[in-house]
Design brief:
662 residues, alpha/beta, Purple Acid Phosphatase, chain A, domain 2, TIM Barrel, 3 domains, 16 helices
Amino acid sequence: MNKRPTGNLKFRVSLVSDTHVNEKEDTSASPYPANAEANPRARYIFNQINQSNSKFCIHLGDMVNPVPELPSFVEAANNFHKLAAELKVPLHLMPGNHDIGDKPVTWMPAGMVNGEHVKLYREHFGNDYFSFDYQNCHFVIINSPLINSGDPAESEQKEWLNSDLAANTEKRIFLFSHYPVYVSNRDEPESYDNIDEPGRTWLLNLIHKYKPEALFSAHVHNFWYDLIGETEFYIVPSTCFVRHDYSEMYRIDGGNQQGRNDGAKLGHITLEIHEKGHVAHYHRSYAKTAKEGELGVPPVVMRPHVKTTNISNIFVDMRHAWTEELNVAPSGAVDEFRRKKARNDYPIMAMWEMGLRGLRVPLQDLIDETTRNRMKIMCAVGHKFHVYRYGMPSDVEMKTILANTNKISRLELVLGWETIQDQIAKITFLKEQTGLPIILSRVNRNDAAKTSGGKFNHLISHGFTLSETEELKLFMNKHPSLIDGILFTIPRSVSPWVAGRKLKIFKDETNCQPVLYVKSTEASPAQTFNDEISNAMRFGHTILSGVGFSIDVILDTFDDADRGYFTRTGLVDRRFNPRISGQLVSEIIRKLDGGVWHATSNGTPEIVNEASQTITIGTKSSIDETAKWFDPATGLSGSKLNTSEISSEIVVIETDEPSNCG
């Protein structure tokens, strides 16, 4: 199954959700300050949508915060329409529980959906379920709070939906429901956040039968992604606040307003529809606001996406679990009588917006059925899995590998170098049986130092060093078709650019693909590397080296290692929000993707394409009169004349002057 789009971009659609507009500006009945900013936060995003070239906008529900039984509901609805009037594109609305009443939840004090609330909704927002066409696409809006309600309108909607889907099977169908059919798992118990039985099975059966291209839901104010058969299933974040009971997913303090004001998780979606397939770009708003009548809201920051990125030789080592399911404790707010199990999909969202396709994962991820299923889904959108194991796989592991070779891009074997001759036959058999590219790595050598600076060295070393290339050449001459690549590891003291140049020579001489594992740390496990700019520079130089010298590279730190040994900052923090390193990686990949680049002969990291454009990274002071800069955090660009607009301490620098290729 391939979910990467093909063909030209046909049109864009903006998706927003859970604006929770209040009856008054900067005021909310909620005790949380984030809710009081709902109106200016929605206004900010509406202004961004006006700059998006979208053909229309779909709101996935919870337009307002006051529920229908409150006197303030009408005033809030009027306020929403006043805000929405600023949009320059058609707006299609869908009922959320705040707009039309909750789904049947007997443990909640809020009023449930009923005929009176449906009538009130229709008076202020229009039809509560409907469909419309644009080009050859069919967009279907449903009233999900009605499901399982027993209200007469429920059976009317069921009959309409089945007929509507049946009548439009020749079109590409996109389905929208405020309530998710489920959050993490098809068989999860009922909670405040999903659709209960029997409505869940009814809706899932329709999805399996009519195979809409995508289902978009909201309500939970966080991000999830799954496949329902052939249908891509998204749960999209809010513009206003985060549902902070799910902050349990992060091993860090609750954060701003106990996690409710985690601004990096707020924003909206641009849905790009191609001739075949689509891409859902998520734009983080960082809780920014716009006052009434305010002009000059910046456009969204353009990011790549894994679905469309062509660069595939950049990998990141997923040391922490990247598809972890955690138990969310009963909060006493929306759920109180059982724990909820939820998968953390924010690592995936972060990788998508960086354009990072490659993941280095242990074989245990493939062995674990739940993680293996996620690997299958991620392969469909374009991810590649570099799977590693210390030692040769067991018989049981071999069965799993053989059954799942389509999920593995290559297999890294970490072996003892002193006993490598004893492993030749096993490696040969493994390669013949699986057909997988084999990457050879090594663990500590017996002749390596066991002391360092007079202190006992109790550390694991894996990967070959640059000083072992001649020894490896002799080995490969003796066994010319045994392996497909060699993994080399460099510590922080070694430049990835210098290492890349050496490994390019090694590649040319051996026809063996080098894989460069770039560490952010040195020998001492007690030494910390928390300088974000220095770490970002190293990540950036690693990518330039990988692209410029056509070697595979592995970044050693995805999310912060902020406890234990070898602590350092990564591409994202422990809430999986992007650091400047992640933003820089995103901007570099956006600039380089689709081009053919080569390393220049300069001593500093710099690459050049056939049009003589050069790309490097640096600080504001390194921008000269011929250069153009790109700020990875804001998306702004300019020349030396307007460097005062740069907000980041590190930028991508482009020049059009010819450089020598190296």
